[in-house]
Amino acid sequence: MDILNALVTLANFVLVPALAYGSQLAIGALGVTLIYGILRFSNFAHGDTMAFGTMVTVLVTWGLQAAGVSLGPLPTALLAMPVGIAATALLVLGTDRIVYRFYREQKAKPVILVIVSMGVMFVMNGLVRFIIGPNDQNFTDGERFIISARDFKNMTGLEEGLAIKTSQGITVVTAIIVVALLFWFLNRTRTGKSMRAYSDNEDLALLSGINPERVVAVTWIIVAALATVAGVLYGIDKSFKPFTYFQLLLPIFAAAIVGGLGSPLGAIAGGFVIAFSEVTITYAWKKVAAYMLPESLAPDGLMQMLAVDYKFAVSFVILVIVLLFRPTGLFKGKSV
Amino acid sequence: MNESIKTTALFALVALLIIGTGLFQSWNAALGILNMGLISAVMALGVNLQWGFAGLFNVGVMGFVALGGLATVLISMPPVPEAWAAGGLRIWAALGLGAATLAIVIMVRKKMAEGLPRAALTAVLLIGGFVLYRSMFDPARDAIEAVNPALQGYLGGMNLPVLLAWPAGGLLAAGAAWVIGKTALGLRSDYLAIATLGIAEIIIAIMKNEDWLARGVKNINGLPRPLPYEIDLQADPAFVERAASFGLDPVTASTLYVKAGYGLLFAAVLLVILFLMQRSLHSPWGRMMRAIRDNEVAARAMGKDVTKRHLQIFILGSAICGIAGAMMTTLDGQLTPSSYQPLRFTFLIWVMVIVGGSGNNFGAILGGFIIWFLWVQVEPFGRWLMELITSGMEPGSTLRDHLLASAAHMRLLSMGLIMLLMLRFSPRGLLPEK
Amino acid sequence: MIGGYGRGADILNGVTLDVELGEIAVIVGPNGAGKSTAMKAVFGMLNIHTGSVVFDGEDITRLSPQARVAKGMGFVPQTHNIFASMSVEENLEMGAFLRRDDYRDTMAQVYDLFPILKEKRHQHAGELSGGQRQQVAVGRALMTKPKLLMLDEPTAGVSPIVMDELFDRIIEVARTGISILMVEQNARQALEIAHKGYVLVQGANGYTGSGKELLANPDVRKSFLGG
C-alpha cells in the first residue's frame, strides 16, 4: 500500500506535470530546430513568436467567451487556436519578407541572422506588450480536472490522490497529434521531403529544382503553427505572461540542442529530458521517501535538491553536460 | 580627417541632445541621462571588446552587471556580526566543501581512465559531496537568515569605501567569466549564446534566492555613497551661499551637485577604460585578436592559442560589464535583484554596440549614449504620439485608454526597429570599424 | 566560352566543347586547367561574358542552372552530391522533384541500371559505400530523364575496381541515348571509353579529338598520360 501511495504521489507531482511540460517544450523545440535546419540560424525571437500566437488566441478566446461560445468541458482556447496560428503565420511570413529574406539573399553568416533575430525579438516583444500588456492573463475555461485528487482517492481508497488537469490531458493529446502530423508531413509528402532535402544539402536541392523560397515559406508557416500550439498549451496549463514566454527560450533551446539542433526527433527527446530533469530536481521528495523508507529513516528535510527558482540551472547544466560529451546532441544534429 | 569630423559631429549631437533635455525638460533629467549614458557606454565597451574585437557572442551581460551590483553590497555594507556568529563560517565552509568536491571530481576524471569505475566514483563523489554540503549549508543558512530578518538576515559586507566596489565588481565578474569561459568557450557561437543566456539567468536566480548573501528579493537599501548626501549639503551654509550666487535654490543645487559628481566619477572610469582599450587595440595583441576573429582557422594554423585568447578577452569584457554594474548600483543606492531584466541589461547593450559600430570603441560609446537617450525619451514621446493619435477619439473610450496606457511599451518596439533598420541599411554602425 | 567566377579573373580563356546525342565526351587536363570550371560554365554556374551555350538547338546562355535542369540537363557534382540523411529512394524522388508526371518507370530504369540501389532503397544514402553513393548521385540526376548528363569526377576517391564498374555503368547510360560530358582525373581510363576527348591547358582547348586519337597522340601521352 505504501508503495502504491508513493507511486501515486510521484505520478501526481512529477510524472504527470513533467509529461505535460515536456510536451510543451518539445513542440517549442521543434519550431526552433526546424528554423535551424532550414534557415540555419538560432531564432531568438521564438519565445516571442509563441507569445504572439498565444496573445491572438487569448484575444479571440475572450471574444468567443463574450459571445457565449464554448466547447463545454474543453477550453474555448482550442477553438480560437486556428486564428492564432493564422495570425502568427502572417506575422512570421511578413517578417521573413521584410527582414530575413534580405540577409538570405546576401548569404549572410548565421551569427548575423541570430543578431537580426534579436531585433525581431524586441519588436515582437514590444508588439505583444503593446497590445495585451505585460501582465498575467487567464483565459482557461471548461472543466478543470479530468480526475481530481478527491475522486481518485474515493475511487482507489488510497491516501494519496492523483489529479490530472484537463489542460495536461489536452497538452499530451495535442502534442501527439501535432508530432504525428509533422512527421507524416516531413516523411510522406512531396513538400515535406523537399524541406528535408533542402535542410540536408542546399546546393543539391537547388540542382533538383526545389524552390528555396517556397521551402522557407512552408517552414515559417509550420513554425508559426508549432509556436502557437506550444504557447497556447503552456498558457492553458499555467498562464499567459509575455515575459515568461521570453524566458521559455532557455529550456526550449536547451531541449533543441540537447536533442541535436536540426533533428526533429531530437527536439522531442530533448524536451522530455529537460522537463523531467527540471521537475525531478526541483521536487521535494520528502513525501515519497516517507512512504518508501522505514519510519526510523524518514527524512527531516524536504529532500529537495534545488529550489524551484533554480530550474534554469537544471536546463543549463544538462545542456553543458551533453555538449561536453556529445557535441552534436543525443540525435545527431547538424553542425554548421 | 573625414572620419574624425564624423565622430566629432556625432558626439556633438549627443551633447546637444543632453543639453536640449536640460533646457526643455530639466537639468536634473539631463544629468540623469548623462550618468546612465556613461554607465551604458562602459557596458557597451565591454560587449564591444568581446564581440567587436573577438567575435564572442555573449548574451549574458545582465549576469555580469548584476554581479557588479552584488559586489557593491559585499564591499560597502557593514558586516552583521550576529549573522557571522550564527553561521558565517559554517556557510563559507560548506561552500568551500562544495567547491572542493567539484575540484576532486574534475581531478579524478582527469587522472582515471575512462570506464565504469570512473563513472561510479564520479557519481559517488558527487552525490556524497552534495549531501554533505547540504547538511552543512542548510542549517547555517537558516541561522543567518533568522538574524533580524526584517532589516538584516544576511552576512553583510566588509564596510569598505564604496568606490572599492567598482574594481571588486570587475573582479567578481571576471571570476565568474573564468568559470563560464572554461566550460563554454570551446562551443560554437550559438551554443555560447545560449550558455551565457542561461548563466545570466542563474546568477539572477542566485541573487534572488540566497537571502543570506544579499537579502534576495527583500533588496538592500541605503548603500553608502562616495559623495555627500543632498540633505547634508542643504544644511551646509557655505553650500547654500554658493548655490545662491549661481541663482539656484539649495534643493536643486544639491541634487545637481551630487549628480554632476557622479558624472565626473563615471567619466573618469570611462576614459581610463577607453584609453586602455585603444592602447590594446593598436598593440600587437589587438591585431592578433582581430586576426583571430576574421579567420580563426588560419590563426590556429599559425600556432595562436585561440581558446586561451578567447578566454582572456571574455574575462576582460565581462569584468568591464561588472565594473559598470557596480557603478550603476552605487548610483541607485540600492540593490534590487528583481529589476535585472535581460531585455534591458543584455539585449539593449547589444543594440548600443550594433548601432554605434562594433569593433570601434568610439562607436560603442556613442551607441551607449544615443540608445540610452532614446530609451529614456521614447516613453514621453510615445505618450505624446498616442495623445496625438487618440485626440480625435471620444474621451473615455476603451481603445483610447488602452492606447494611452500602452504607450510605455513603445520602447521595446522602437529599439527593435532601430536595431533592424541599422542592421539593414548601415550594418557596420554609425562609426564603423576602420 | 570565356569567363570566370563572380567578378574575379577569367579562368576560362576560350574553351569550346561539343557533345552529340548518345556520345561520351571527356574533359581531361592537368590540375588547375579549368576542367571543372568549363563544365560548370556549361551548366550555368559561372559568368560567361563571351561565347554561348547552345543546347538542343536553343541558346541557353542566360538560363539559371535550375532552368537548365528543366530543359534536360543533369549535373552530378563532385562532392556533396547526395542527400545523406534521406533514403536512397527519397534521393531519387528528389531528383524527380520537377516532374509532375508519373516517374515510376524512370525509377525502375535506374534500379535496373544500379541493382544494388534497389536492394538498399530504404537505407540512408549516407550509410552507403563510396561507389554506391556515386551510383545514388548518378541515379538522382537521371530521374529528370536528362538529354545530357554531366559528371564532375565521378570516380574521385573510389577504388580501381569500383571505378571500372562505374565506367561500365556510364557506358550503359550513354547507350540509352543520353549524352555524357564528364571531367576525369583518371585520364587514360576515361579516354578509353570516350567518343570524344578535350584536353584543356590553362583554361583553353589544348588538344581535341576522339578518345583513341588522343591516346595515340604522342604529345598528349607525354604531357598528361605519363608516357
TrEMBL record, chain A:
Example of a GO MF term:
L-isoleucine transmembrane transporter activity
Matching entries from InterPro entries are given as:
ABC_transp_permease (IPR001851), BCAA_transport_permease (IPR052157)
The record's Gene Ontology biological-process terms are: D-alanine transmembrane transport; L-alanine transport; L-isoleucine import across plasma membrane
Q: Cellular location of this protein?
A: Cell membrane
NAD keyword on record: no
**Main subcellular localisation:** membrane
Keyword DNA repair set for record:
no
Q: How does it sit in the membrane?
A: Multi-pass membrane protein
- The regions listed as transmembrane in this protein's record are 20-39, 51-71, 77-99, 111-132, 168-186, 215-236, 305-325
Q: Which keywords belong to this entry?
A: Amino-acid transport, Cell inner membrane, Cell membrane, Membrane, Transmembrane, Transmembrane helix, Transport
Looking at the UniProt record for this protein, which Gene Ontology cellular component terms does it annotate, in alphabetical order? plasma membrane
PANTHER family xref list: BRANCHED-CHAIN AMINO ACID TRANSPORT SYSTEM PERMEASE PROTEIN LIVH, HIGH-AFFINITY BRANCHED-CHAIN AMINO ACID TRANSPORT SYSTEM PERMEASE PROTEIN LIVH
Stated family: Belongs to the binding-protein-dependent transport system permease family. LivHM subfamily.
- Record protein name field: Branched-chain amino acid transport system permease protein
Organism this protein belongs to: Donghicola tyrosinivorans
**Source organism phylogeny:** Bacteria, Pseudomonadati, Pseudomonadota, Alphaproteobacteria, Rhodobacterales
UniProtKB/TrEMBL annotation, chain B:
Q: What's the main place this protein lives?
A: membrane
Q: Which GO terms describe its molecular function?
A: branched-chain amino acid transmembrane transporter activity
Q: Where in the cell is it found?
A: Cell membrane
Q: Which residue spans traverse the membrane?
A: 7-24, 30-49, 56-77, 89-108, 120-137, 157-179, 191-207, 256-277, 310-328, 348-376
**Any one cellular-component term (Gene Ontology):** plasma membrane
Q: Per its UniProt record, what PANTHER family does this chain match?
A: HIGH-AFFINITY BRANCHED-CHAIN AMINO ACID TRANSPORT PROTEIN BRAE (PTHR30482:SF10), HIGH-AFFINITY BRANCHED-CHAIN AMINO ACID TRANSPORT SYSTEM PERMEASE (PTHR30482)
Name-wise, this protein is Branched-chain amino acid transport system permease protein
Q: Which organism is it from?
A: Donghicola tyrosinivorans
Automatic annotation (TrEMBL), chain C:
User: Where would I find the ABC transporter domain in this sequence?
Assistant: 2-227
The keyword Transport appears for this protein = yes
Determine the domain of life of the protein's source.
Bacteria
Question: Which biological processes are named by the entry's GO terms?
Answer: L-amino acid transport
A Pfam entry, by short name: ABC_tran
MF terms (GO), sorted A to Z: ATP binding; ATP hydrolysis activity; branched-chain amino acid transmembrane transporter activity
Cited InterPro entries: AAA+_ATPase (IPR003593), ABC_transporter-like_ATP-bd (IPR003439), BCAA_Transport_ATP-bd_LivF (IPR052156), P-loop_NTPase (IPR027417)
Q: What's in the keyword line of the UniProt record?
A: Amino-acid transport, ATP-binding, Nucleotide-binding, Transport
Record family assignment: Belongs to the ABC transporter superfamily.
Q: What is this protein called?
A: Branched-chain amino acid transport system ATP-binding protein
Q: Which organism is it from?
A: Donghicola tyrosinivorans
Q: Print the organism lineage.
A: Bacteria, Pseudomonadati, Pseudomonadota, Alphaproteobacteria, Rhodobacterales
